[in-house]
Amino acid sequence: MIDTHTHYDHKRFNKIRNDLMDAIDSSSDIEYVINATISRRSVFTMREKLSQYPKVKFSVGKHPNFAANDDFNDNQQKE
Questions:
Q1: Domain for residue 28, yes or no?
Q2: Average pLDDT for residues 1-19, to the nearest whole number?
Q3: Which of 33, 46, 65, 68 could tie 9 with a disulfide, CB 3.0–4.6 Å?
Q4: Residue 55 belongs to a domain
Q5: CA–CA dist 29, 50 (Å, integer)
Q6: Strand order in 32-36's β-sheet?
Q7: How many domains does the chain have?
Q8: Which range of residues forms the domain containing residue 51?
Q9: Residue 19 resides in a domain
Q10: What is the pTM of this model?
């Protein structure tokens, strides 16, 4: 199984992220989870919080709520 849409970098997972990722990593039923970005900033938080987990893959995109105020063309990380 591949979960094609997760947001495990979101702050709501901060307290349980390690346990959740350990459960995913040890599961023989889950091949991968694809963590989707919601904004330019989440590209960086996703990599920071999830890159150490082997079953997490990343997708880059922009949620419509961020379309007007989020610039993917800027090469500098925004805070």
A1: yes
A2: 94
A3: 46
A4: yes
A5: 20
A6: 2-6, 32-36, 56-59
A7: 1
A8: 2-66
A9: yes
A10: 0.75
CA dist., res. 59 & res. 34, Å (int): 7
End-to-end CA distance of the chain: 35
Which of 11, 10, 4, 15 lies closest to 56 in space, CA to CA? Answer: 4
CB of 39 closer than 8 Å to CB of 9: no
Query: What gap in Å lies between CA 70 and CA 25, rounded to an integer?
Result: 32
The per-residue pLDDT for range 38-73, each reduced to its tens digit, is: 877 888 889 999 999 999 999 987 777 766 765 666
HSE-CB for 15 with a 13 A CA cutoff? 1
Query: 39 near 70, Cβ under 8 Å?
Result: yes
Inside any domain, residue 51: yes
